[in-house]
């Protein structure tokens, strides 16, 4: 079992001596990490590298899950601030491993953080199911941090396909801070801000407040609060998904088409007006879907725009390079849901038409709804 503790020189001699006791070392590590031995992170993109650097720096054994065939077997994430100043990062190279290489002991006592694009989530869950069934073991908890709408539904459907003895506790999370990948290993962090999360499902015999359930709150606090990131545990995974999804659906494609940074929405004008129309429609669909986004939710959205005002959202690069975007789980998903609810969403339809024209002019592929 891989265990590492960051020992600060200012600690007392008695504590330093205890750190050389392997049993104390292991026990302390497990308490600090909510009973988790190892963290696996699926998705070595900007958010995945930031999370890997954060938990590794906090002393947790951390592995990044990648696609088969990658040339490098390790990565050393290097973080910088929004101003480009270097930040404390991973103290050592971290392993990059495909799922095919995982063994039973890798999943035992572990927690899995999922930071892949929404379009990659369903294939990843299928691969995870195959691995868990083959090895007859699953992580104690899985936290999905992908941007997108409809992912809570997808997670619940996937959980229903798993045998009862292989059901991890599933949680949905949303990260309200900016991470931009500048190279293979370098990530720029725009924070601090907050990370919201809520339980989606629990394994049999582990109700939401059971004392022996996976202590995800302690684990996240150990790795993320050193950055000043506020952790907010909520009751409704649908609410937190709609809050972040409404922001992304109203902003990402609009700014990608306009070739603009997030901060452009802070200036009164046509772009801000169109964003406001998209956000109103998103709130209308959310309300009809059973989720009310109130003034506090809107306040968080505008605060996040201001905090990430120099950011280029990920769809900006994806759209221009011809890569798949998150549209099937943002605007296209929202429009499809609006149609089932008999709600008009002309602003979102305009954005999708503009994206299709943009792709058509460049000869890149079209994307369809997930429904």
What is shown here, in short?
The chain is of the alpha/beta class and 371 residues long.
Descriptive notes:
This protein is an alpha/beta fold. It has two domains: 13-234, NAD(P)-binding Rossmann-like Domain (Rossmann fold, 3-Layer(aba) Sandwich), CATH 3.40.50.720; 239-362, N-(1-d-carboxylethyl)-l-norvaline Dehydrogenase, domain 2. It contains 13 helices and eleven strands. Strands 1, 2, 3, 4, 5, 6, 7, 8, 9, 10 and 11 form an eleven-stranded mixed beta sheet that branches. Helix 7 (216-224) links the parallel strand 10 (186-201) and strand 11 (230-233). The longest helix has 22 residues, at 237-258. The radius of gyration is 21 Å and the shape is globular.
Question: Features of this protein?
Answer:
disordered N terminus; Rossmann fold; N-(1-d-carboxylethyl)-l-norvaline Dehydrogenase, domain 2; alpha/beta; 371 residues; 11-stranded mixed beta sheet
> What is the assigned CATH homologous superfamily of the largest domain?
NAD(P)-binding Rossmann-like Domain
Shape field? globular
Tell me the CATH topology of the largest domain: Rossmann fold
Structural class designation: alpha/beta
Beta-strand share of residues: 15-25%
From the 3D coordinates, which CATH architecture of the largest domain would you assign?
Answer: 3-Layer(aba) Sandwich
**How far apart are the termini?**
42 Å
User: What composes the largest sheet?
Assistant: 11 strands, mixed
What percent of the residues sit in helical stretches (DSSP H or I)?
A: 40-55%
CATH hierarchy, class of the largest domain: Alpha Beta
Number of strands: 11
- The low-confidence runs, each spanning 5 or more residues with pLDDT under 50, are 1-31
The Cα radius of gyration reads 21 Å
Give the domain tally. Answer: 2
DSSP helix count?
13
Mean pLDDT: 85
């Amino acid at each position: 079992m891989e265990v590492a503790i960051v020992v600060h020189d200012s600690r007392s001699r008695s504590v330093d001596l205890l750190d050389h006791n392997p049993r104390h070392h292991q026990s302390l590590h497990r308490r600090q990490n909510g009973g988790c031995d190892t963290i696996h992170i699926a998705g070595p993109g900007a958010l995945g590298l930031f999370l890997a650097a954060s938990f590794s720096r906090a002393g947790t054994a951390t592995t990044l899950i990648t696609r088969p065939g990658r040339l490098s077997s390790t990565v050393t994430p290097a973080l910088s601030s929004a101003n480009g100043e270097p930040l404390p990062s991973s103290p050592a190279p971290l392993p990059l491993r495909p799922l095919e290489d995982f063994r039973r002991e890798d999943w035992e006592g572990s927690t899995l953080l999922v930071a892949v694009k929404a379009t990659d989530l369903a294939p990843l869950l299928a691969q995870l199911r195959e691995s868990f069934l083959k090895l007859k073991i699953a992580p104690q908890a899985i936290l999905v941090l992908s941007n997108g709408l409809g992912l809570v539904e997808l997670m619940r459907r996937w959980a229903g396909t798993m045998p009862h003895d292989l059901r991890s506790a599933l949680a949905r999370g949303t990260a309200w801070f900016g991470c931009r990948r500048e190279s293979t290993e370098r990530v720029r962090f725009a924070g601090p801000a907050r990370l919201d999360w809520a339980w989606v499902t629990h394994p049999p015999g582990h109700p939401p407040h059971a004392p022996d359930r996976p202590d995800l709150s302690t684990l996240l606090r150990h790795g993320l609060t050193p950055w000043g990131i506020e952790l907010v545990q909520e009751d409704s995974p649908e609410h937190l998904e709609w809050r972040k999804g409404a922001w992304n659906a109203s902003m990402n494609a609009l700014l990608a088409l306009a070739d603009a940074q997030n901060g452009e929405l802070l200036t009164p004008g046509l772009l801000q007006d169109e964003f406001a129309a998209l956000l109103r429609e998103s709130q209308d669909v959310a309300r009809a879907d059973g989720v009310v986004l109130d003034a506090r939710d809107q306040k968080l959205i505008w605060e996040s725009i201001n905090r990430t005002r120099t950011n280029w959202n990920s769809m900006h690069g994806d759209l221009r390079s011809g890569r798949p975007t998150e549209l099937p789980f943002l605007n296209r998903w929202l429009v499809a849901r609006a149609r089932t609810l008999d709600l008009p969403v002309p602003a979102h339809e305009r954005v999708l038409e503009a994206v299709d024209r943009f792709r058509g002019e460049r000869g890149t592929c079209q994307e369809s709804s997930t429904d």
